[in-house]
Every structure is written in C-alpha cells, then in structure tokens.
Amino acid sequence: MIYVFGHKSPDTDSVTSAIALSALKNKLGYDTEPGILGPLNKETKYVLDYFKVAYPRSIDNVKTQLRDLNYDQVTGIGPKQSILFAYKLMEENNIKVLPIVDKEHTLLGIVAMKDIAMGLIKGDFYHLETEIGNIVDALEGVLLTGDDLEIEGTISVISYYYDTMVKGHLLNENSIVIVGDRYDVIDHAITRGVKLVIVTGGKEIPDKYIDKAEKKGINLVLVKQSTYAAAKLLNQCNYVSSIMKTEDIVKFNENEYLDEVKEELVTNRHSQYPVVTEDNKYLGFVSRRHILKPNRKKVILVDHNEYAQSVEGLDEAEIIEVVDHHKIGDILTTTPIEFRNMPVGSTCTIVFNLFKENKVSLDKKIVGLLLAGIISDTLALKSPTTTSLDIEAVKEL
Fold this sequence. Notes:
- The chain has helices at 12-27, 42-50, 83-93, 113-122, 132-139, 162-167, 183-191, 207-216, 227-234, 258-267, 289-292, 347-357, 364-377, 388-396; strands spanning 2-5, 32-36, 57-58, 97-101, 107-112, 127-131, 142-145, 150-157, 175-179, 196-199, 219-222, 252-253, 272-276, 282-287, 298-302, 318-324, 338-341.
- The chain has 14 helices and 17 strands.
- The strands form four sheets. A six-stranded parallel beta sheet has the order 3-2-1-15-16-17. A six-stranded mixed beta sheet has the order 6-8-9-10-11-7. A three-stranded mixed beta sheet has the order 12-13-14.
- The longest helix has 16 residues, at 12-27.
- The relative contact order is 0.17.
- It is elongated, with a radius of gyration of 34 Å.
- The protein is 34% helix and 20% strand.
- The model has no long low-confidence stretch (mean pLDDT 93).
- The chain is α/β, with parallel strands linked by helices.
- The protein has three domains: 2-63 and 297-396, inorganic pyrophosphatase (n-terminal core), CATH 3.90.1640.10; 70-140 and 225-256 and 266-289, CBS-domain; 141-224, HprK N-terminal domain-like (Udp-n-acetylmuramoylalanyl-d-glutamate--2,6- Diaminopimelate Ligase, Chain: A, domain 1, 3-Layer(aba) Sandwich).
C-alpha cells in the first residue's frame, strides 16, 4: 500500500490533488490510498460532497509498525494434532516455534522444540489423551474395531506373565494396552473392557478376537512396529495442547510501532514472538532479524516537500515520489525518486498533466476535483502565481 497525502493544513488543492493522483496511480497498476493530515475545511468538504467523493482517511503518522514487516508466515496447527505431528512439521520445515490456533485462527499457545524435548524427558509417560486417528497415523496402523473418536487412559505395555497380569488386576476400563501376538492377553484385555488394544508385530489377528472386540465396543488397532517402537511413539500421540505454552507468552499486536517493541526484541531471550490482531488472531512470527532492515511505509507527497509540513514519522517512511509547486524543501531520501516540481499555481495542474502524459482518461468526479483544486489555489485564476498552464488546464477540464 502506498499512501498519498498533502500537508498538515489540508486545503482544497492538497486534498483533491492527493485523491486524483491516487486514482491515477491505481489505474497504472499501483495500490494506493489518499489520506489527509488534518481536519478538512468547509470549502474542501463542500467540493467533496458536491462531487460525491468520500473523505480521505486521516493519517496520524507513518511510523513503521509490525504489520509493515515481512514477518515469518508460519502456519498454525490445531490443539488436537499430535505432538509427533507437530515435531515432524517443525523438523521438515525448519520451524523453531509452532503456533497452536483454533478454527477461527485465535492464538491458543505456542510449542518450541524444547517443549517437545522436555515432554519426552519429564512428561507423564503413562497418560494418553488423543484422537484415535492420531494413533493410527503415528503408528501407521489399521483400526480393526471401535468407533471412539477420542481416547483417554493409562498406557500399559504388557510384559508380565499372564497369571501375574490377571491376579494383579492390572487392566481396567481405562487401560490402553500395547501387546504382541499374545492372544491370551488380548482376550483378557477385551474381556476387561479396556479403552484400546494395540497389537504390535503386524501379524494377522484371528477373527474370533476381532469379533469379540467388535461386540464389546473395544478399539482394536494392528500395527507393524515392535512393542518397543510402538511404546516409544504412543506417548507422542498425545494432543500437542498437552505441552503447549499458554502463559506468559510475549506477543505483539500488529499495530504496535517498531520503536516501541525494539527493546523487547533485542533484550529478551526468546528468538521468535507471535504477532496477533486486536482480537488475538494469529498472523505470524517476528524476530530480531526483522528489525535490522525493516520494511517501511511507502508514501507519495503532494503539495509540500518539507518535514515540518508533513506527517509524523516521515523520516521512518520510504518516500517514493513528490508532486509539488512550492520551493524545494528539506526532504531527503536514500534512493532516487520521482520528483515533479513545477512553477504553477496549483498541484492539481501538475496532476492533470500527469494524466495526459500517461494517456489515462479522467472520470467526471476526478475532473471536478482537479478543476476545484486549481480554482481554489489560484483564487479563480486571479492569483499572481497563476500561469498559462493553470489557465489551459482549467479550459481543458
């Protein structure tokens, strides 16, 4: 977006020339928006109302905001994705921090590789809460019976003798059983009404156990992995929400100014920070590298070319063009720009000639605005600053 605006005390010439130049630029393929730096006077309001043109948006400043930066567009995942899914996504895409969002894209929390690692070291290895689909995907298994969408229970890797397991009452309705092709254990688990039986090794299970599990409503999954491998992966099937950070998250609003958050970005130990909207919708991540060479707001100045007459924060913006009819001021740029300065009575005269040079047609509203701007600034062509170019422009318009 390129903002086109006049000086701090907007008169008819500065306002109408900004609107007309913005219209020209948009027809030439640019994305621009006219603005004003102060309240409109009665004459200018009358002109805009007469030609049924909306009042330009008021611009308070053009300081660099977080929304101007090319922050990292890391795609968020839902809270019911598995920890293993999150890890693979981060590993494949070299992502350091992953946002967790709901269906409306509201930021719920964040997960870093450190959180996944600490979960593997200090987490609850026996508790599992997840969707059955996460288990099937992670273990590359096949769901043989059962229709529970979600599973929550205690993981039991059966390595005991059958008698020890039975006498110790090790299995109950909250058990999630991992076992090889030990059919006596499978039968006992189904009888006890456990939440889920994961049969490892990939060998075909006799139909009678499948039928029994079906009748009892037991979830039965067959996987190719060994019992050891399945046990290692199963804990990582937990919802990623179980390890995500939800408190004390340092995040920034997209409308915050860079100079306000720069110190936080430089001094804080975190490497990446979520950027959100006013209603906490996740947008992306910003880091220290984004402030080294930040994107700046792009602006076009009309009817002035001095800092004192212009918007706050102009020194942080990228001036790409100036169209004016006053003396050369103190505007400085680091790169060459379009600078059209002509000794005429109105900036609208210059803008009108830009339309002609680019062979772009004018609609009636723009014609009216340009005409009003010239008449206003030249005092109906009676001002000593009036030139033949102004007179000719009025005739043509």
